[in-house]
Amino acid sequence: MTTRQVAPSISPEQAAVEQELVDTVVASFEKAQDPRLRQLMQALTKHLHNFAREVRLTEDEWNAGIEFLTAAGHITDDKRQEFILLSDVLGLSMQTIAINNETHKNATEATVFGPFFVQDAPEIPIGGDIAGGANGQPCWVEGIVTDTSGKPLPGARIEVWEADEDGFYDVQYTNHRVAGRAHLFADQDGHYAFWGLTPTPYPIPHDGPVGKMLEAVGRSPMRASHLHFMVTADEHRTLVTHIFVQGDPYIEAGDSVFGVKSSLIKRFEQQPAGAPTPDGRELHGATWARTRFDIVLAPNPDLK
């Protein structure tokens, strides 16, 4: 498929024909009873038509786009969401997060949700292990959950999930195991701690249409090493975020879903084999790592 390098100039008559169609389609949504739905559909129509007119979209290109979306639908199932992946690599997921999580004082920054969250992950106690037998270097993670004034938030729910050292989440395996994910609750001082795995970089699923698109445009599918969090507490805004491993080369090279924020890059301190663990856990001569992530939740704007 060839692409046009420069959009050709068009006559005023042709521009008028195209604009008339835009106006007609926009007007067709005027009777929508929901004003927000009307606004969304009319704005979407304007932007889609303006895109097509700006690049002078060919019918072959339009057909290729339809085939791409069809392929994304066919590969999507209850364990893989290709449309979220597409949104992620286009930066739309991060843009939506930025719009809906306005900066608020010192609140922890949000980042992409990703396609591998699972409801009803098992509960672990403080100091428990989320690995569930997944391969990887043990990592001790701890911190406190507070509001923006520094007041601890006892009972805050902390969901955590991550890939194993081979770069796969549990749902990507066929054995139906639950590994690398759990939830726990902060104690009366807002403190939490758990054993997980030291994050490693991995590619997003790139065996489908999104992967082919990245290859075609010369972009890497690699994600910087990270650990997912979703944190909730009464009267506070739900936080969806990651922490990233300081020194990971894909932080500099470019995270494929644009999820890295400097405030979320944390030092994962390597510990030698035999070094005492915070809770006395016996690691049988294995090396391990530790990191600290203090979480600050913004107030729920809907409660103002």
Q: Could you please describe the fold and organization of this structure?
A:
- There is one protein chain.
- By secondary structure, the chain is an alpha/beta fold.
- The protein starts with 11 loop residues before the first helix and ends in a 7-residue tail after the last strand.
- It is globular, with a radius of gyration of 23 Å.
- A hairpin with a 6-residue loop joins strand 7 and strand 8.
- Helix content is 28%, strand content 19%.
- It has seven helices and twelve strands.
- The longest helix has 21 residues.
- The strands form three sheets. Strands 1, 4, 10, 11 and 12 form a five-stranded mixed β-sheet that branches. A five-stranded mixed β-sheet has the order 3-2-7-8-9, with no helix packed on it.
Question: What does this entry show, briefly?
Answer:
This protein has 304 residues and is of the alpha/beta class. The protein has 7 helices and 12 strands.
